[in-house]
């Protein structure tokens, strides 16, 4: 069957069971890989079209007033689908709706084979940034003239399907063969397409020189280019940057405007490198700090023939450096630049582990099968093996834990897989790189592990440096949660299970009646039982606090501290249970070690498997001891539970209350020059907070604040209402209603295009609900973190794809979200971003500072809030053409004594403190 009919529907809603009806149908017929026919018609739904649907589609009640009823066209529709595949972008919706209408009108359901282009796109274009139709069309350069209209969407889906078939025909036989073994788990009926292609390839002599095949697994060849040697710049650094900033960048950009602050930053960093001192540089928005620090890093690395490390907090910035900034500079600089990205082992897929899992279909559910299929195709494309390149389904990441390089344990260099390791390739590239790009987490892990993860370096630039102290604390700390510990025990398995121990017995024909296996099963069973009891007891302990003084994390988990100095808030019974667990884990480690000694026939791979599990058990054992059995004053321990999840959804954490001395001794004293840069390092024009928290007090260092070239006074208006209700921890309702009303009023002035930043997920959810129920916002698309599904990046793209949208965010949305141009016209800051005083880390640090004779509010709470506020404020103006309004619902910025710290830490902008009505009038006239 080579006939395909693509369908797309526009409807009055999402549920035919609730009375929603079809208002437009679009059909596109494909034969012999060509579009041969199209059909479209309005349908009279016998009900009114909601305003939201009319706003989205442009279809009104008048358009469908004289349209036929579904029953009048049903026979023609059914006939079109004869001997055809049914294709749709989310086929469950369109076919489900069509079948419901057919049944309602006395017709039978269509039972044709189906293809879902969402699913097929995930498999065949795993690196696409999104799988929504509009964004896929943009990614694949398919013109989409009339989104949310049935024929236009069906036509684009047909074009997408033809692209998918084209991609399928580019895959090697081994990949097609493996996809066929997974096909029965898919929604789409792809077997005939895969079988046909598999048969064509069996008789084909052509080969792809970029693809290598090992043990039936096809992947892109891992080629490591040779690094150029004996490179030097024939001019001084001054001459180098004078050329770049005056002529080089001018050649690439017709409208390039030189920014003095950018060159000033480059010179300061190079001087710090040459004088071997540390530096803190605050570079406000618009400076172009990436180029500013890349130039001295590249020049110094090549001239000195010593690598420079650049560390970022977000993968987004890493991608920007690798894919935009460095290729740009390579066009100007004649000398080859060797740049490498290096992450932790978890990020890189293990071909060996994936090969083993590919042959094991016993544990396949839909997400696992889809993940395997996506990875199979991605392996024919990726040069890095970095899993961050693709977006696996949610539970696919649990599967990925089993196939990451981290799951390999200690790797035998003589293994045939060792030289087929993406992680080893990344390490080799890093060894010969001028510039290594990494992240704060790996940089800190390297520091805490005697610098064994990264190749040696003396100079480092830390971008997004306001996160460095927090990351260093997290990496020095521990995380212990029930699901991961139980996952490890389940991976070890009983002697009669197809897990580690059972597979060893089966593979080597071992005698499972031996005493060691009886003892193993008994011990594993006891460990699981004790673990359940321990975490259940902790869950109940935390639950008891909910009635007392509940405190919630920014993702809605109940949380509280487990210690106050030397005083533990858990009982001696919990310590006894923790001690019992450590004994059991030691015994499990001992038995695994005996297995290694007793069974000399074990292959190196299986020895590595056992070593990896021993290491994992030891890490958990150490964490339990540190959390419950060790005494340490300079540490905060806390617990979080998810009360909406299953029992034992318990997460345990600990980290130092003060990391500054560790950073000073283990990092700043070890490196010749560390440059820390960010748009938010100063508080009230001073670097003192950053200097102290990072442990730079006894070091020689330079500081420089480089102001933005933007005309903030002309581009921004700050509005602060003086008539909002006071907010208290016990009564937030009036404040939330006032906030919701202000958001609605401002959105009507700015046509949406609004980002609303919250400090509390609970407040976000309540405000969203009020606005959602308001009849006045039917024309706006509401997108909310934690409510609308998708990652932060996905939510941002959805926001940008609609003309009238409001984006609600908390926590991570305060920074790193760039929405330049007219897509964002207003920013609402609901509350000044103080951390809740009952947050465990805040409580512990406040107590630590108080005992040291310092003021916790002025020394910790206020600086952190100001930095986050500056980050949030920076979301609005991203270019010299942007203009907009910042609406701050929290009057404390004007009335509290500490308000001046927030105001003095942002650019000098007009601030209006007035009634909400007057502020709205001001906004209306300004726009």
From TrEMBL:
Its cofactor is [4Fe-4S] cluster. InterPro entries: ATP-dep_Helicase_C, DEAD/DEAH_box_helicase_dom, DinG, DinG/Rad3-like, DnaQ, Helic_SF1/SF2_ATP-bd_DinG/Rad3, Helicase_ATP-bd, P-loop_NTPase. It holds the Pfam family RNase_T. ATP binds at residues 283-290. SUPFAM superfamilies: P-loop containing nucleoside triphosphate hydrolases, Ribonuclease H-like. Keywords: ATP-binding, Exonuclease, Helicase, Hydrolase, Nuclease, Nucleotide-binding. Residues 248-527, 270-492 form the Helicase ATP-binding domain. It catalyses: ATP + H2O = ADP + phosphate + H(+). It is an enzyme of class 3 (hydrolase). 3'-5' exonuclease. Belongs to the helicase family. DinG subfamily. Type 2 sub-subfamily. This is 3'-5' exonuclease DinG. The gene is dinG.
């Amino acid at each position: 069957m080579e006939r395909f009919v693509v369908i797309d529907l526009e409807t009055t809603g999402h549920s035919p069971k609730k009375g929603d009806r079809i208002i437009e149908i679009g059909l596109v017929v494909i034969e012999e890989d060509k579009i041969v026919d199209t059909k479209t018609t309005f349908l009279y739904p016998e009900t009114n079209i909601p305003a939201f649907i009319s706003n989205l589609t442009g279809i009104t009640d008048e358009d469908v007033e004289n349209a036929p009823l579904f029953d009048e066209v049903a026979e023609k529709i059914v006939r079109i689908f004869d001997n055809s595949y049914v294709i749709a972008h989310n086929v469950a919706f369109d076919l489900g709706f069509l079948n419901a209408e057919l049944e309602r009108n006395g017709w039978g359901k269509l039972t044709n084979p189906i293809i879902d282009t969402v699913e097929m796109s995930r498999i065949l274009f795993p690196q696409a940034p999104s799988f929504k139709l509009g964004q896929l069309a943009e990614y694949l350069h398919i013109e989409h003239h009339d989104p949310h209209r049935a024929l236009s969407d069906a036509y684009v889906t047909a074009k997408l399907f033809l692209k998918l078939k084209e991609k399928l025909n580019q895959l090697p036989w081994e990949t097609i063969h493996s996809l066929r073994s997974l096909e029965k788990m898919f929604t789409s009926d792809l077997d005939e397409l895969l079988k046909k292609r598999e048969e064509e390839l069996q008789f084909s002599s052509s080969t792809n020189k970029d693809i290598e095949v090992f043990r039936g697994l096809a992947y892109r060849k891992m080629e490591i280019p040779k690094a150029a040697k004996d490179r030097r710049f024939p001019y001084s650094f001054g001459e180098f940057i004078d050329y770049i900033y005056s002529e080089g960048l001018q050649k690439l950009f017709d409208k390039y405007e030189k920014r003095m602050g950018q060159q000033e930053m480059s010179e300061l960093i190079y001087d710090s490198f040459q004088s071997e001192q540390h530096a803190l540089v605050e570079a406000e928005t618009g400076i172009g700090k990436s180029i500013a620090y890349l130039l001295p890093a590249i020049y110094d690395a090549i001239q000195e023939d010593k690598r420079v490390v650049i560390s970022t907090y977000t993968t987004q910035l890493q991608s920007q450096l690798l894919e935009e900034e460095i290729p740009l500079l390579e066009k100007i600089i004649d000398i080859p630049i060797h740049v490498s990205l290096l992450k932790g082992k978890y990020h890189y897929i293990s071909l060996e582990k994936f090969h083993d899992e590919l042959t094991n279909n016993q544990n396949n559910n839909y997400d696992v099968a889809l993940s395997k299929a996506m990875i199979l195709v991605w392996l024919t494309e990726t040069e890095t093996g970095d899993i961050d390149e693709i977006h696996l389904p949610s539970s696919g990441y649990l599967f990925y834990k089993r196939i990451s390089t981290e799951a390999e344990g200690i790797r035998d260099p003589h293994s045939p897989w060792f030289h087929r390791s993406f992680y080893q390739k990344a390490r080799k590239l890093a060894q010969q790189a001028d510039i290594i790009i990494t992240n704060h987490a790996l940089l800190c892990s390297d520091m805490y592990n005697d610098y064994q993860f990264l190749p040696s370096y003396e100079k480092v630039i830390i971008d997004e440096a306001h996160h460095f102290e927090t990351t260093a604390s997290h990496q020095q700390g521990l995380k212990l949660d029930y699901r991961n510990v139980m996952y490890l025990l389940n991976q070890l398995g009983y002697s009669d299970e197809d897990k580690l121990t059972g597979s060893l017995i089966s593979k080597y024909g071992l005698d499972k009646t031996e005493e060691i296996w009886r003892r193993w099963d008994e011990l594993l069973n006891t460990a699981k039982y004790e673990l359940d009891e321990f975490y259940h007891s902790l869950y109940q302990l935390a639950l008891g606090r909910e009635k007392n003084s509940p405190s919630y994390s920014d993702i809605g988990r109940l949380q509280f501290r487990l210690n106050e100095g030397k005083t533990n808030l858990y009982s001696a019974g919990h310590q006894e249970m923790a001690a019992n667990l450590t004994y059991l884990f030691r015994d499990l480690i001992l038995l695994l070690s005996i297995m290694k000694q007793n069974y000399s026939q074990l292959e190196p791979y299986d020895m590595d498997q056992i070593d990896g599990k021993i290491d994992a058990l030891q890490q958990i054992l150490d964490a339990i001891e540190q959390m419950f059995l060790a005494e340490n004053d300079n540490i905060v321990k806390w617990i979080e539970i998810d009360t909406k999840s299953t029992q034992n959804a318990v997460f345990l954490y600990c980290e130092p209350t003060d990391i500054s001395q560790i950073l000073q001794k283990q990092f700043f004293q070890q490196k010749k020059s560390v440059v820390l840069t960010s748009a938010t390092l100063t508080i009230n024009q001073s670097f003192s907070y950053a200097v102290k928290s990072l442990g730079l007090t006894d070091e020689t260092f330079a500081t420089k604040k480089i102001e933005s070239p933007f005309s903030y006074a002309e581009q921004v208006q700050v509005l602060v209402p003086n008539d909002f209700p006071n907010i208290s921890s016990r009564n937030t309702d009036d404040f939330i209603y006032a906030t919701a009303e202000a958001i609605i009023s401002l959105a009507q002035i700015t046509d949406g295009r609004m980002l609303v930043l919250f400090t509390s997920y609970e407040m976000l959810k309540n405000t969203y609900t009020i606005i959602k129920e308001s009849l006045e916002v039917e024309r706006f698309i509401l997108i909310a973190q934690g409510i609308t599904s998708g990652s932060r990046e996905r939510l941002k793209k959805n926001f940008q794809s609609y003309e009238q949208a409001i984006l609600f965010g908390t926590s991570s949305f305060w920074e790193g979200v760039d929405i330049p141009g007219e897509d964002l016209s207003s920013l609402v800051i609901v509350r000044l971003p103080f951390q809740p005083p009952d947050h465990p880390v805040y409580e512990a640090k406040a107590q630590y500072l108080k005992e040291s004779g310092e003021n916790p509010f002025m020394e910790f709470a206020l600086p952190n809030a100001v930095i986050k506020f500056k980050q949030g404020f920076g979301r609005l103006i991203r270019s010299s053409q942007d203009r907009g309004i910042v609406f701050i619902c929290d009057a404390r910025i004007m009335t509290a004594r500490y308000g001046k710290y927030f105001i003095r830490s942002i650019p000098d902008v007009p601030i209006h403190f007035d009634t909400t009505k007057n502020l709205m009038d001001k906004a209306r006239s300004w726009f």
